Inverse folding.
């Protein structure tokens, strides 16, 4: 049976797995022996094998992703895969401390984020309290020193008019 988005000349997903093969790791993962994409996920005819497995079983809708409980991208063991949203994947990544910035001790400008009160999650995604203060001070200085301005301009009008 052919599924939308699946390889047109492909065998079934189980035949593809049998044809390409996998290695069993000490942790019980089935690591794909075939091609992987730039992030290490198993692919067959340009399709992620884990996603293909879950689609065939009717477990994924168009928006969902195949998530790994084992945190091993080339793993194709069905028991290690489950359907989820991109948000669930991101939350899982943060919870398991796999996010690329999870262990930062200083911000991009060198401020120590380990000090009490130095880090806070802002709506724009920034975390450094000192950088936020510095940015606000630069903005306030620009507004105070703009030519012909007695202060901040009214909304929708330029300063000094």
């Amino acid at each position: 049976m052919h599924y939308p988005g699946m390889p047109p000349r492909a065998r079934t997903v189980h035949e593809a797995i049998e044809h390409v093969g996998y290695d069993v790791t000490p942790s019980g993962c089935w690591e794909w022996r075939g091609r992987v994409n730039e992030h290490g996920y198993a692919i067959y005819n340009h399709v992620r094998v884990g996603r293909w497995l879950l689609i065939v079983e009717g477990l994924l809708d168009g928006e969902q992703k195949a998530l790994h409980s084992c945190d091993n991208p080339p793993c194709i063991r069905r028991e290690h895969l489950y359907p989820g949203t991109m948000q669930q994947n991101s939350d899982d990544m943060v919870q398991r401390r796999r996010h690329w910035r999870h262990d930062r001790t200083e911000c991009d400008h060198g401020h120590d984020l380990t000090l009490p009160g130095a880090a806070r999650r802002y709506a724009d995604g920034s975390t450094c309290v000192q950088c936020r203060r510095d940015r606000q001070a630069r903005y306030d200085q620009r507004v105070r020193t703009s030519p012909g301005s007695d202060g901040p301009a009214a909304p929708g009008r330029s300063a000094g008019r």
Residues 104-146 form one domain. The chain has two domains: 1-102, 104-146. The chain has a mean pLDDT of 80.
